[in-house]
Amino acid sequence: MRRRARAVGRITPQIQPLVDDMVAVMRQANGVGLAAPQVGVNKRVIVAQVEDRLHVLIDPEIVRRDGEELGTEGCLSIPGIIAEVPRAARVVVKGKNRKGKGITLRATGLLARILQHEVDHLDGILFLDRVQDKSTIRDVAASSETDAAVPPA
Ligand SMILES: [Zn+2]
User: Are 45 and 58 in contact (CB under 8 A)?
Assistant: First the structure.
């Protein structure tokens, strides 16, 4: 979890079951994103799902960040804890889809936040590392219902 994940490079057939597994784990946890290191695979693969739209990114790179926004985050790898995390409001991410085709994703709002959270996982960075106001770190069980509804990533 704290290591820098390795680039996938050429897409081989072994990537397909990994992506399927990651999507299944994310959905089972009612999460909105997942990075391969979270399922014990040290490769640069992330998945994200917002409003029924599934995004699969292999070797993702954030090539542009604009603005800043504070938002609530949780993490499937740190269950029960949420906090306010500053992130860029808009990002442009380049990578490959599961077929190896180059893609450019322009994201704002929740999707932009998830992508930054997942790319951080690939670099061994956890969302708590990004928290500036430590007093915002809280137990989901002890917080309001709205906070508890924050989907993990
Ligand atoms: Zn996470």
Answer: yes
